[in-house]
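Support reply, case 0932

Customer input (verbatim):
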Amino acid sequence: MALRVLEDDFENNRFNDDKCHTLSSVEQMKVEETVQMCYSYLKDELGLEIDESESSQQEIKEETALPRLKRWKHKKFLLKGLEQLSQSYQCLDASRCWLVYWILHSLDLLSVDLPDPVADRVIEYLGRCQNPDGGFGGGPGQMSHLASTYPSVNALCIVGTEKAYQTINRVKLQEFLQCMHTANGGFIMHQDGEEDIRGAYCAASIAKLTNIMTPEMFDKTPEWVISGFPGLEAHGGYSFCGLAILVLLEHEGLCDLKSLLRWATNRQMKYEGGFQGRTNKLVDGCYSFWQGGAFPLLHMALSKQDSVSENPVSCSKWMFNQGALQEYILACCQYHSGGLIDKPGKSTDYYHTMYCLSGLSVAQHFTSGHHESDHIIGHKDNELKLTHPVFNICVDKALQASQYFRNCPSGDQSMFTD
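Our regenerated output:
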């Protein structure tokens, strides 16, 4: 695919506030300056001198194709995180299960296999995080929480061995999810905790992946998702969660899909190419998945609604600029020593590393029914494994886990070992 930054009129995409400066417009222009430096560096690396008077797009030879994904540096950064974290991560003590998930999924996207001893240690650690009530805490001895149960289950499914699957006490997990369900259809995050759409997504994802979903568990949940609250601001993360819930429960028709599509497409930044999380906010690498991951779900839902004679969805690409997102991630979000970041000038962390890579995977691969196509920007080695847009673990791991748990009916104690 041709690079967008080499187009003659690319700089015309810069933000213009017509000299009516506001705090947000000033911040936006500052970000664009840092992004422009990254794109200029990319063009310098390519060794191309763009003549503004020319209108031809320049092709890049395969053997020198740029930008390139710094696979080795990212792998080193991630593997180090599994072994030891710096003191600055103390504030994430209640998110240790998330750290495991962020690192494991990132490595899996990069096609890095875990050594057996490391996989065994991951299984043993996460097993100590599951409480007698069936939920997982953020670390051993911590209270059960939907927001830590979701990454724990995902991480064990990424390990993908029978030992990892058997670590999950599905009977107790089913009881825990049912206890988090409220009478109006929502889910509380933990006992006596807040009701939150993130909790409902975590519950639906866990239940579907481990085959413990029941009608009672999600009674009134689709209606609760779309009920909304007047005056609240639309948000990319919450929008993804709400849409994913409806897809998992097969009630996506309750959503105004075309309005959501219009809102989501307008969150892709015209100059940067990445996504913002809310209107009038700055670009952020994590929304490469939280916004970008919604498009496969929208595509699937709209394909059910649109007849061939009306306005059929594409059979070859998602409904956002996949190349622009890849350019932003590869040129602006790779930290020099490994890991990925929010935007130029920020520090690297495991959260942004995983969600940038997940968004990159979505942007690289199109799959809808029997139709598949790849859109790889830069070097061919940039290609990542395909992530599942609902669960956000790699498709092969999601299918493998689903098949395993499909053979373990809900409530079957025979899968547990002494």
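We compared this against your earlier run and they match. Two observations from our side: The beta strands are 365-368, 371-374. Confidence is low (pLDDT under 50) at residues 49-56, 411-418. Please reopen the case if you see a mismatch on your end.
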